[in-house]
Amino acid sequence: xxxxxxxxxxxxxxxRVTRLEELPGRLDDLTSQVSQLRTEMRDEFSAVRTEMRTxxxAVRAEMSTxxxAVRGEMRTxxxAVRGEMRTxxxAVRTEMxxxxxxxxxxxxxxxxxxxxxxxxxxxxMIRRIALLQEGLNRAPRRTSRKK
Length: 147
What we know:
Largest sheet: none
Helix content: over 70%
Radius of gyration: 55 Å
Order of helices and strands: H
Structural class: mainly alpha
C-alpha cells in the first residue's frame, strides 16, 4: 500500500470527525423513537388487558346464566322423574299386594294338597330305592374269567 499524503489523511480524519459529530443527534433521534415505541406499546397492552377483562366478564356472566338455566331444567326433570317413579312404585306395590293376597287365599288349600302329594312321592321313592338295594344285594356276583 502506497503511503498517503498528509492532505488525504487530513481529509479522511475530517470525514470521520463529521460523522462522529452527527452521532449524538442520531442517537437522540433513536432514543426518542425507542421512548415513543415504549409509550405506544404500554398503551396498546393496557387496551388489550382492558378489552380482555371486559370480554372475560361477559363470558363469566353468560356462563353463569346458562348454568343457572341448566340447573333449573335438571331440577324440573328430576322432580318429574321422581313423581313418575313414585306413581309406578305405588302401582307395583298395589298389584303385588293384590297378587299376594290372591296367592295366599288360593294356596292355603293347595299347599296342604301339595305337601301331602310330596310326602307320598317321597315315601314311594324311598320304597323304590330300598327295592333296588335288595335286588343288588341278592344278585350273584360275576367273577371274572381268566383266559
